[in-house]
Amino acid sequence: MPAADVSLRIGHGFDAHPLVPGRRCVLAGIEIASDEGPEGHSDGDVVLHALADALLGAAAAGDLGSVFGTTRPEWKDAPSSRLVAEVRERTGHPRVVNVDVTVIAARPKIGPHRDAMREKIAGLCGIDASRVSVKASSGNGLTDFGRGEGIAAMVVVLVDEPEVG
Question: What's the pTM value of the predicted model, to 2 decimals?
């Protein structure tokens, strides 16, 4: 099949932030009760940052840093759902087929929030929550994430998209 006939594309995104005291903990657009939260210019939501990066990757449209930067005042403390919406707009609103998320962190625990995260991501992508997977790994004491010093997320997204440059 010639490449021009293929409309399915895969994107992969990754983001990581240190956890800092006194910061809200927002993951996948869901606020989680915690004494610490991910440091960042926006709300620090590593899940939605990785999702936005994956969507950009599927469209070969750059990465989060090159598109939004890390110091622009309009993104200071902004909800990362705005970043995802902006990326969807910039990439022509491709039809998202499915989203697979892995959070790597010793804390906070993801299990109690998994369904709410799936619903939030599904809403942002315009799909049913059955097409969104959210998994977690504690890191087992390895790396800064496994020791509870930070949090990371990896996202893989499959899109069926209109042609995007």
Answer: 0.91
